[in-house]
Amino acid sequence: MAKAEIKRVLDVSKRALFQTITKYEDYPQFVSGCKSVDIERENETKARVKYLVSIMKDVSYVLNHDENFETGEIQWSLVEGDFFQKNTGSWKLKEIGPEKTEAVYSIEVEFNVPVPSFILNRLIKGSLPEMMKNFEKRAKDQGKGE
Q1: What is the pTM of this model?
Q2: What are the residue ranges spanned by the domains of the chain?
Q3: Closest residue by Cα to residue 63 from 93, 38, 26
Q4: Span 2-145: which CATH code?
Q5: pLDDT tens string for the chain (146 positions)?
Q6: What are the DSSP E strand ranges found in the chain?
């Protein structure tokens, strides 16, 4: 099992970042390794998303997402997947000023097959800073287009 958390202050509004995170259909355009997504919305705050990603090989999995803009939280949990035994996590967003948001990303994963720890660390912990930058850049770029 691998756990990781990253906390950063990003130069973007909470609203713009929240909208970027919850616009799952755009992930293949800016999330490294994400090839496609299929989204079923239960309502405005719940989504079931099937991901096809390249993690050493192509894998698909389904996550349930709960979104709450007021609290700034997006949580997810694994529904099914051939690669993961567990995949839970969250984003926690807190506006700390104009165009400044504290973002905390947490994830806990467990794979169905043994994965060496050095690979886990590279996959999980090593990719988080870059992922955070990609979400910040996407939120800024989307804000310019509005």
Answers
A1: 0.91
A2: 2-145
A3: 38
A4: 3.30.530.20
A5: 788 899 999 999 999 999 999 999 999 999 999 999 999 998 999 999 999 999 778 999 999 999 999 999 999 999 999 888 999 999 999 999 989 999 999 999 988 888 777 777 776 767 888 999 999 999 999 876 44
A6: 2-10, 34-43, 46-55, 57-68, 73-81, 84-97, 100-111
In the block, tokens 């165009």 appear at: 99
Q: What does the block give as tokens for 29?
A: 């355009």
Q: Which two tokens stand for residue 2?
A: 């691998």
Task: Find out whether 124 and 16 touch, Cβ atoms under 8 Å.
Answer: no
* Structure tokens, 13: 């509004």
* 143 Cα distance to chain centroid: 19
How far is residue 104's CA from residue 67's CA, in Å, rounded to a whole number? Answer: 15
